[in-house]
Write a structure and sequence with these properties.
The protein is mainly β. The protein has helices at about 35-45, 190-195, 290-300; strands at about 1-5, 10-15, 50-55, 60-65, 70-75, 80, 85, 90-95, 100, 105-115, 150, 175-180, 200-205, 210-215, 230, 235-240, 245, 255, 260-265, 280-285. The chain contains three helices and 20 strands. Strands 12-19-16-17-14-13-20 form a seven-stranded mixed beta barrel.
């Protein structure tokens, strides 16, 4: 068992998500930063999609009630065990009674805590990922709170080290490659230019559903009434006020705003590190770049982590 001594800004159980149900209005959800989540599981010898804890912006404290191998991966939160610093993107043993603490996130937004054997949660449609708007999965469908206790499963394998060159680096200026969305051509030429030239800032209204951005206005050439249409994580919508909204992991499955851009699949994991105040730039995808990036990244990390894909 692990006891939550302090839940911090936001703490949830996440796995690889529940794909295939968007037509029913149920987002895929899962770990917002898929790569850091997979690397955390890799280090403790778990299958890459084993449930782990997603820690947002830091401040989380845990007490372990058994000896176990754990790993930390993602945003740098200056973790400590019993007051001694532990390295990010490493695995190590903790003993019964040990206290793990996260400070605030210096760079990025989310860090993942994996344990050998994974965390047990409430399944829904084949996943225990927490989807807070509908109280599904996770721990009673909610964010974890102080004094909650989590059960750990049986170990799958031995701990292992991430080879040189596989640890991602993070910045508070996130660059996302994107393709033109279905309604990109309906925007003014100035708006089209702004999207790929000027950076935006994520506002305080940023969470797992969406990141509201602040910057140059993105507006259509003329007022149009749009019927609600499909959305995906990484879709950049343009509401009437001209300030874009970037759909995140738990984002709606449909929406009625113009869809200006679509972040390429190979870069979606980076969105998990967007925090309030992050600077975000969009870079235009060229030719087959989206497929090439996805293919290269899947081959690179899939060769290390069995079964992993972005």
């Amino acid at each position: 068992m692990i006891e939550v001594r302090q839940s911090g800004t936001r703490l949830t159980i996440q796995d690889a998500g529940r794909p295939g149900h968007r037509h029913q209005g149920i987002p895929t959800s899962g770990a917002a930063d898929r790569l850091s989540f997979a690397l955390a599981n890799f280090m403790v010898g778990n299958p890459w999609d084993t449930p782990a804890l997603e820690c947002v912006l830091g401040g989380q404290h845990f007490k372990f009630e058994k000896d176990v191998i754990i790993a930390i991966a993602g945003a740098e939160m200056w973790a400590q065990v019993n007051g001694q610093n532990v390295e990010n993107f490493t695995s190590f043993k903790v003993n019964s009674g040990d206290i793990l603490t996260f400070s605030f996130a210096r760079t990025g937004c989310r860090s993942y805590l994996a344990v050998q054997g994974g965390f047990k949660g409430d399944p829904f449609l084949g996943s225990v990922s927490t989807y807070l708007p509908a109280n599904l999965g996770g721990f009673q469908g909610r964010a974890l709170q102080t004094r909650d206790k989590l059960e750990i499963g049986s170990p799958f394998g031995s701990s292992q080290t991430i080879p040189t060159g596989y640890v991602p680096s993070f910045s508070n200026h996130i660059v996302l490659r994107a393709l033109e969305g279905p309604e990109f051509s309906e925007l003014t030429l100035a708006s089209q230019r702004h999207l790929f030239v000027d950076p935006y800032r994520a506002t305080q209204h940023t969470n797992r559903m969406g990141a509201r951005l602040k910057g140059n206005q993105v507006v259509p050439k003329e007022h149009t009434h749009m019927i609600s249409s499909p959305l995906l994580p990484g879709t950049l919508q343009c509401p009437p006020d001209g300030q874009p909204i970037l759909a995140m992991t738990d984002g709606h499955c449909t929406g009625g705003y113009l869809r200006a851009l679509q972040v390429i699949r190979g870069d979606l994991w980076l969105m998990g590190q967007i925090r309030p105040g992050s600077k975000i730039s969009f870079r235009r995808g060229i030719g087959n770049e989206a497929l090439d990036v996805l293919s290269r990244r899947n081959a690179f990390y899939g060769g290390l982590i069995d079964g992993f894909t972005f």
